[in-house]
Write a structure and sequence with these properties.
Elements: E1 3-7, H1 8-16, E2 20-29, E3 49-56, H2 79-91, E4 95-100, H3 106-119, H4 123-126, H5 135-153
Parallel strand pairs: 1-4, 2-3, 2-4
Helix pairs in contact: 2-5, 3-5
Length: 154
Amino acid sequence: MKVEIYSREAMERRLKEGKLYDTAVICFYDPPSSRTPADYAPINYDKKCSAEYSIAVHDIDIEVLSEYGLTYDTYFPEAKLLAFYIKTAVECNLDIVCQCEYGQSRSAACAAAIKEYYDHDGISIFADYRYYPNQLIFNKVLDALKTVNSAEDV
């Protein structure tokens, strides 16, 4: 399984080259707010990859959760469903692409969590100067992967 990180712009260029075969895409995008244009939407991956999971989630740090009316427990409630999606992609031997607006924070955090859980190598993404993994996303995805995969062992 290969795990890659893309920005929106890089992915749009990549999709012009053709379909992403044997690939599961995880697309993080900004939820509607005063900071996003009215016509803003995630990339349409329809018929362009093997599977897609899109998630609207703020790219924020734990210190500002309350400003968004959130707590650690209420932030990113889709993490467990995403973990099931990742687990299924791995079981189907699909490569995984994590994509967000700039390809540096949310997507890097998700990729780091996947690499940490499956390869014990999430640190390689944290050590790469191109990425600034979102700590909340990383911890939520990693915890969800542990929960989803341990449920099978019971």
